[in-house]
Amino acid sequence: MTGGYSSSEMMAVAAARRLEDGAVCFVGIGLPSLAANLARATHAPRCTLIYESGTIGAKPRHLPLSIGDGELAETADAVVSVPEIFSYWLQGGRIDVGFLGAAQIDRFGNLNSTVIGDYDHPRVRLPGAGGAPEIAASCRRTFVMLRHSTRGFVPRLDFRTTVGNGDGPGDRARLGFTGAGVTAVVTDLCVLEPDPVSAELTLTTLHPGIEPERVRAATGWELRVAADVRVEQPPSAAELQALRALRTVATERVSE
Amino acid sequence: MAEIVPLSEAVAALVRDGDTVALEGFTHLIPHAAGHELIRQRRRDLTLVRMTPDVIYDQMIGMGCAGTLVFSWGGNPGVGSLHRLRDAVEHGWPRPLALEEHSHAAMAAAYAAGAANLPMGVLRGAVGTDLPAHNSSTTIECPFTGERLTAVRALRPDVGIVHAQRADRAGNVQMWGITGVQKEVVLAAGRSIVTVEEVVDTLDPVPGAVVLPGWVVTAVCEAPGGAHPSYAHGYYGRDNAFYVSWDEISRDRERFTAWITRHVLETADVVAYRRSLDEAEAAA
Question: At B245, which CATH number?
Answer without folding.
Answer: 3.40.1080.10
